[in-house]
Amino acid sequence: MTVTQLEKRIIWISLAFALVLLGLSALAINLFHVGLPTCLTDIKPFQKGELITHSPTHYELHYVARMWKFEPENVTVPAGSIVDIYLSAADVTHGLILLGTDLNLMAVPGVVNYARVKFDKPLVYQLLCHEYCGAGHDRMAAELHVVDMATFSAKPGPPPAAEPTHPGYKLLDANTCLTCHSIDGQPGIGPTLKGIQGRTQKLADGSTVTVDSAFIREKILHPNAKIIAGRFEQEMPKTDLTREEIEEIVEYIQTLK
Ligand code: CUA
Q1: Which residue CA neighbors atom 1 of ligand 1 most closely?
Q2: Which of 22, 98, 185, 243 could bridge 194 with an S-S bond, Cβ 3.0-4.6 Å?
Q3: How many CB atoms within 10 Å of residue 3?
Q4: Which secondary structure element, helix H or strand E, spans residue 200, and what is its range?
């Protein structure tokens, strides 16, 4: 077989195009953080799988179903506890059946479904996906361990973090500031407040400021006076906090080192 000069040229051009496309994709992923679209609900806090402890016998369990697993995959609760189960889907429609109980929910993209289950005796429950969701559907399973209270209490693990008691925290919470700003370093819609004090921040006009108490105070009072440079599309909404309340918040943020 002979490959003509023209055919060779076409092959090389096609390869070059493919490489350029790959390069642009890599750039989009790494530089602009473009990801696959997600169907996950935008209702917080149901966007991640987690077990939340309300009391030693009352839990809230958020499951996220995705191809092809449930998050969290392994959960342990003590016997005798009531578990409020919330289920959301990250990609396609899945189902959740908890064998040995009445629990049967659909995991629908963009929706949060709910059921309450009381677990009376220690047992390992199997969680299965019962809606065909693609090639790995038959492997989509998880476990929920119900153990007796003594075993559960003896389980090593970090103690649940107590909610901060500082009045500044309560004000941040009451004014929905924590919807956008975390206090533990987690990224959010706005920057985390952990360690923000003393940081050098670039502004949209190209200048830089040090985030000190005066800056935080001013930012709360006049959110749009100094616009932060970067990817935050929206500046903070204005609040009607009093001067005293703002001082409490400023003081609290100082403690978030
Ligand atoms: Cu998920 Cu079937």
Answers
A1: 94
A2: 185
A3: 9
A4: strand 200-202
Q: Which atom of ligand 1 is nearest to the CA of 132?
A: 2
Give the Å distance between the CA of 90 and the centre of ligand 1.
11
pLDDT in tens, 23-69: 999 998 888 877 766 667 767 777 789 999 988 889 999 999 999 99
How many angstroms separate the CA atoms of 111 and 172, rounded? 28
Whether 98 is in the pocket of ligand 1, judged by its Cβ within 6 Å, is no
Nearest 10 degrees: CA dihedral of 10, 15, 18, 19? -140
**Separation of 89 CA from ligand 1 center, angstroms?**
10
Q: Is the C-beta atom of 90 inside 6 A of ligand 1?
A: no
**DSSP-based three-state secondary structure for 84:** strand
Q: CA–CA distance from 135 to each of 51, 106, 131, 142, 220 (Å)? A: 28, 19, 12, 17, 51
Residue 11 has pLDDT above 90, yes or no: yes
Nearest CA among 78, 89, 82 for reference residue 49: 89
For residue 105, the CA-to-ligand 1 centroid distance in Å is 12
Atom of ligand 1 nearest to the CA of 94: 1
